[in-house]
Amino acid sequence: MEGISGHFRKIREELLATSAYNRSMWLTKLAAFCLLTLTAFAQMKASIVILAVTDLNRAVEFYCDRLGLKLTSTNGDFAFFDAGGITIALRGGRPKADPADLASTEIAFGVEHVKLAYQALSKAGVQFRREPRIVTGTTWATDFRDPDGHVLSIVGPE
């Protein structure tokens, strides 16, 4: 694993040394590197993403009505959604102490056509932070925030 950690250190150093404008390119390289190294950890699979929310009812409405996710169950301060192979769990009643914590996690939803999904979600009331754009090769993406400020994105072909 020394080779992997050395390569990771090199990417990190280049990322920190580059301008903010070029950081997205280096982050893409880092993401690709991480994907390539996942085979070493094949037995570990993420199955649930847990997000703290300030108002559980408002968040459930957003994830159901605006994003169209299926609410699979609730349990006390938790609501669970089927997000196509992964579960999103919302934990209510425990707001984050630091608002920056809300932006440190991003959930990317794979879609068949980013521009069509962008139009449909916009009509449903989702407010995007930017227009869809190419992020790497033929992959497009754009992002938005949920009512608590968590960063969500859609990614896929144009």
Write the layout of secondary structure elements.
Layout: H1 2-17, H2 23-37, E1 48-52, H3 56-66, E2 70-75, E3 78-82, E4 87-91, H4 99-103, E5 106-110, H5 114-123, E6 133-136, E7 139-145, E8 151-156
Helix pairs in contact: 1-2
Could you give a short description of this structure?
The chain has 158 residues and is an alpha/beta fold. It is 36% helix and 27% strand.
Description:
This protein is an alpha/beta fold. It has two domains: 2-41, no CATH class; 48-156, 2,3-Dihydroxybiphenyl 1,2-Dioxygenase, domain 1. It has five helices and eight strands. The protein has helices spanning 2-17, 23-37, 56-66, 99-103, 114-123, and strands spanning 48-52, 70-75, 78-82, 87-91, 106-110, 133-136, 139-145, 151-156. A hairpin with a 2-residue loop joins strand 6 (133-136) and strand 7 (139-145). Helix 1 (2-17) runs antiparallel to helix 2 (23-37).
Structural class: alpha/beta
Round the mean pLDDT to the nearest integer and report it: 77
User: How many structural units, i.e. domains?
Assistant: 2
- Note the gap between the termini: 36 Å
Strand order, main sheet: write it out.
Answer: 1-4-3-2
Biggest pleated-sheet summary: 4 strands, mixed
Oligomer: single chain
CATH class of the largest domain: Alpha Beta
Following the backbone from N to C, one meets helices and strands in this order, namely HHEHEEEHEHEEE
Rounded radius of gyration (Å): 17 Å
Please count the helical segments: 5
Q: CATH superfamily of the largest domain, please? A: 2,3-Dihydroxybiphenyl 1,2-Dioxygenase, domain 1
Q: What is the number of E strands?
A: 8
- Spans of at least 5 consecutive residues whose pLDDT stays below 50 are 36-44
Helix content: 25-40%
